[in-house]
């Protein structure tokens, strides 16, 4: 085991990993190992029927990180018993079978028919114990950084722990790094990038002196003095003062704010904050407040929808007829919640873009729904956040540093009643936009899926804590207990998820790049000279234009969107209803006009949210289902073809440059090694077919992840006639 600090805590030989539920002919024999980082199955047998597997440098083909385990079920066939194992529980029977349910919808199943009964029991108990730690400092990241500080010469996969950004390897051609927003300078650069001249970086929370759930540095209106902020902070829940997120070129700002708990001071403080935001607008325009707790589904509703979605995808998909399954999908309300977030975010885009008003996102604590809404608004408005580095900086700014509770919401310690997959819902919303506007995003859906997976690898500090202060506090305590000298550092430095070289080779990281992406400028050769032209509004696709005139299921809601300086002091006027109606008509006209024009891929993008335009993210939720896999099909076939075309264009450009400069052929060959495409053309007019290993699950493989009846898939005729081929969890647990 190559990762520093990883130790084997238990293992058992002669274990059989089940590959299919209706036959044992494909099963693999090997050793099941539990470490303090993952469970691993080590075998010399080749994986049957598998033609491709991308390699994660931290995890083997059969490995599951401990933080990705959701439930552990032990079964004894002869006694017809099964038990869900919690931490520190006893097992009164010798297990003949172990079933691991994973948070990424995988099911992995092992048989102990030939293994020693006591050894099998011990390894099951070890997995239950180490996958359900009782304390944050027992997560593997702490063990790893402790070893790094004691052995500074040793590194994971030859790389230092990520304290300074990372991400440059997949950032951009210029080698940009991902800003972490831990410093004053990162925030200052973002102010300058967005032209927010009437805003300033505030250091009043240095050392987390005001609020433990805010970053040390954040941006506030220039007209608000530090003393006022300190005074106002006592009135906000969690002392979370208003946080600036982004500025529109027209001067309107996007701000996040927690509720004011001091009822007596509420109106006065609210008015002062809104006045300060108004003064930060070049035209002194109004402030529009959106109460997210009233407009959007709650975190409990999102969690309930996710549980239903998981049951649908893992236990009983397509059970009998497609119609029934689609009805069940609708009943999960998952897609309905996706639609709500996209719709509301688009309406707030209208307020900033068309009405030129600053938008304040108000939420009780200001660290859940506002993370998602603020991020979506910025993805729609700012093309920078549709690049890889920009998107990573957005997550750092609006999630990691803004205090999204990753520890509780991802339930890393398996004991939180606060679990809710808001981060997954955000990635799903971004995928919907990527699906509708593929040429507007630098990253691929593979990138989004792997980012979701990385949130459940306990080596990275990025998605491990509830807030930056918790990282500092917990790691400082850990350092003292382990006799680690921190010096001037604020807590231990954990590996950063944006350093993708920790997980993937440079070749595999090319899968993150979207070949359909149209960059800000593209090289153009004219009379032998390379020029650059700006891409104008692109007549992208007729399907991206035109929505039904009646937008009942579209973007417009029946709620009023009257801009106001302060919602708490607004007096209802007699002509209020006419104004609200006029506002709604204006918004409807804005959307109708926008959808009627060609899409500017480097301007605003708005979602289609009616009917079937919101889809299930199949790569993420169906990648482990053998029957749902389409061999030689799915989006990857288009991805492959476009990659070859893009590579051919790159080759033509290189040939033209070589022709112009009369450089040697050898120089040209060295350039060929720097292709930005995962799939490369063998030469111009390459007509080679798609690789045999391409499928709708690519680059993942469902083989060996036991979700279904058969590894071989279902014949279409049986599928259409409604053959019942799926197993429920209970049947699966008791089947031999």
UniProtKB/TrEMBL annotation:
- Keyword Transferase belongs to the record: no
Q: Which InterPro entries match?
A: MTMR10_PTP, MTMR12-like_C, Myotubularin, Myotubularin-like_Pase_dom, PH-like_dom_sf, Prot-tyrosine_phosphatase-like
Q: Which GO terms describe its biological process?
A: phosphatidylinositol dephosphorylation
List the residue ranges forming a coiled coil, or say none: none
Q: Which GO terms describe its cellular component?
A: cytoplasm; membrane
- Listed Gene3D superfamilies: Pleckstrin-homology domain (PH domain)/Phosphotyrosine-binding domain (PTB) (2.30.29.30)
- Quick check: keyword Phosphoprotein in the entry? yes
| Superkingdom as given in the UniProt entry | Eukaryota
Q: Check the record and name the Pfam families matching this protein.
A: 3-PAP, Myotub-related
Keywords from the UniProt entry: Phosphoprotein
List residues of the Myotubularin phosphatase domain. Answer: 181-621
Q: Which family does it belong to?
A: Belongs to the protein-tyrosine phosphatase family. Non-receptor class myotubularin subfamily.
This chain belongs to which protein, by name? Myotubularin-related protein 10
Species name: Struthio camelus australis
């Amino acid at each position: 085991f190559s990762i520093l600090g990883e130790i084997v805590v238990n293992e058992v030989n002669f274990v059989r990993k089940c590959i299919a539920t209706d036959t044992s002919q494909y099963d693999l024999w090997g050793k099941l190992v539990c470490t303090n980082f993952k469970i691993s199955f080590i075998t010399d047998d080749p994986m049957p029927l598998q033609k491709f597997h991308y390699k994660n440098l931290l995890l083997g083909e059969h490995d599951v990180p401990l933080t990705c385990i959701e439930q552990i079920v032990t079964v004894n066939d002869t006694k017809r018993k099964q038990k869900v194992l919690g931490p520190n529980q006893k097992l009164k029977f010798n297990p003949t079978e172990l079933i691991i349910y994973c948070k990424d919808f995988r099911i992995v199943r092992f048989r102990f028919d030939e293994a020693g009964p006591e050894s099998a029991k011990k390894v099951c108990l070890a997995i239950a114990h180490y996958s359900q730690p009782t304390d944050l400092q027992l997560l593997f990241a702490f063990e790893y950084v402790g070893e790094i500080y004691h052995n500074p010469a040793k590194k994971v996969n030859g790389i230092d722990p990520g304290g300074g950004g990372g991400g440059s390897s997949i950032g951009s051609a210029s080698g940009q790094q991902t800003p972490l927003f831990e410093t004053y300078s990162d925030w200052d650069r973002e102010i300058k990038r967005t032209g927010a001249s009437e805003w300033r970086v505030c250091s009043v929370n240095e050392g987390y002196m005001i609020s433990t759930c805010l970053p040390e540095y954040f941006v506030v209106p220039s007209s608000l003095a530090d003393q006022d902020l300190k005074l106002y902070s006592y009135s906000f829940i969690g002392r979370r003062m208003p946080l600036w997120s982004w500025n529109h070129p027209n001067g309107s700002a996007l701000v996040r704010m927690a509720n004011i708990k001091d009822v007596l001071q509420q109106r006065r403080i609210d008015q002062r904050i809104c006045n300060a935001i108004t003064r930060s607008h070049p035209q002194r325009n109004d402030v529009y407040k959106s109460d997210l707790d009233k407009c959007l589904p709650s975190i409990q509703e999102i969690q309930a929808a996710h549980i239903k979605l998981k049951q649908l995808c893992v236990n009983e998909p397509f059970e009998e007829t497609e119609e029934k399954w689609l009805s069940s999908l609708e009943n999960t309300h998952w897609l309905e919640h996706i639609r709500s977030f996209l719709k509301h975010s688009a309406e707030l885009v209208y307020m900033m873009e068309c009405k030129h008003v600053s938008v304040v996102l108000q939420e009780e604590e200001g660290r859940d729904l506002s993370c998602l809404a603020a991020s979506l608004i910025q993805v729609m408005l700012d093309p920078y956040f549709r690049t890889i580095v920009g998107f990573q900086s957005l997550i750092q700014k609006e999630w990691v540093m803004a205090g999204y509770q990753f520890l509780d919401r991802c339930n890393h310690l398996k004991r939180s009643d606060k679990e809710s997959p808001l981060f997954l819902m955000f990635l799903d919303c971004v995928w919907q936009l990527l699906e509708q506007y593929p040429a507007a995003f630098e990253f691929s859906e593979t990138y989004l899926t792997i980012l979701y997976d990385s949130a459940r690898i306990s080596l990275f500090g990025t998605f491990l804590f509830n807030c930056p202060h918790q990282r500092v506090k917990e790691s400082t305590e850990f350092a003292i207990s382990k006799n680690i000298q921190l010096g001037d550092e604020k807590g231990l430095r954990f590996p950063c998820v944006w350093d993708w070289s920790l997980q993937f080779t440079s070749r595999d990281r090319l899968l993150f790049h979207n070949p359909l992406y149209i960059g800000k400028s593209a090289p153009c050769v004219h009379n032998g000279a390379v020029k650059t032209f700006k891409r104008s509004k692109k007549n992208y696709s007729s399907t991206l234009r035109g929505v039904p005139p009646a937008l009942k299921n579209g973007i417009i809601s029946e709620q009023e969107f009257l801009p106001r300086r302060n919602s708490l002091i607004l007096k209802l006027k007699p002509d209020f209803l006419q104004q609200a109606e006029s506002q709604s008509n204006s918004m409807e006209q804005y959307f109708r006009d926008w959808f009627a024009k060609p899409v500017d891929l480097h301007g605003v993008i708005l979602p289609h949210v009616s009917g079937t335009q919101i889809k299930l993210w199949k790569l993420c939720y169906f990648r482990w289902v053998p029957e749902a896999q389409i061999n030689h099909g799915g989006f990857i076939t288009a991805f492959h073809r476009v990659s070859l075309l893009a590579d051919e264009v790159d080759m033509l450009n290189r040939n033209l440059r070589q022709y112009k400069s009369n450089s040697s052929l050898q120089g040209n060959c060295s350039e060929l090694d720097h292709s930005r495409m995962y799939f490369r053309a063998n030469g111009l007019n390459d007509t080679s077919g798609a690789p045999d290993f391409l499928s709708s699950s690519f680059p993942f493989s469902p083989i060996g992840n036991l979700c279904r009846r058969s590894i071989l898939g279902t014949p279409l005729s049986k599928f259409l006639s409604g053959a019942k081929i799926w197993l429920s969890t209970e049947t699966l647990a008791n089947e031999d």
